[in-house]
């Protein structure tokens, strides 16, 4: 599995971010091909001090090639271009292969 994580610093207008994200951005995300699962939260907390991020988004893909194809798709490009409409604080995007662990 391959994971994409988007970390959002605090935006200029948190209420606009939340509303736009749920009403406009997530419907675009749902249309991205190859997306196995996704999740998000506006309740980002730090174990010590103030959290450096306002919101987080996670997406799961079968592998790096599936994520690259999704990002290059028309739907992926549309979702990426939409970020500027709500994320006035910018976004930090990381991706990585997921290694399963055992107890």
From TrEMBL:
Entry-linked NCBIfam families: EthD family reductase
Record-given protein name: EthD family reductase
All copies of domain EthD, residue ranges: 11-88
InterPro entries: EthD_dom (IPR009799)
Superkingdom of origin: Bacteria
Entry-linked Pfam families: EthD
């Amino acid at each position: 599995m391959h994971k994409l994580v988007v970390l959002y610093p605090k935006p200029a207008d948190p209420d606009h971010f939340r509303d736009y994200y749920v009403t406009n951005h997530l419907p675009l995300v749902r249309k991205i091909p190859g997306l196995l699962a996704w999740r998000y939260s506006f309740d980002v907390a730090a174990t010590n001090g103030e959290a450096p991020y306002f919101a987080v988004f996670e997406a799961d893909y079968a592998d790096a090639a599936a994520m690259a194809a999704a990002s290059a798709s028309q739907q992926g490009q549309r979702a990426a271009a939409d970020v500027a409409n709500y994320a006035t604080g910018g976004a930090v995007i990381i991706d990585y292969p997921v290694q399963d662990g055992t107890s």
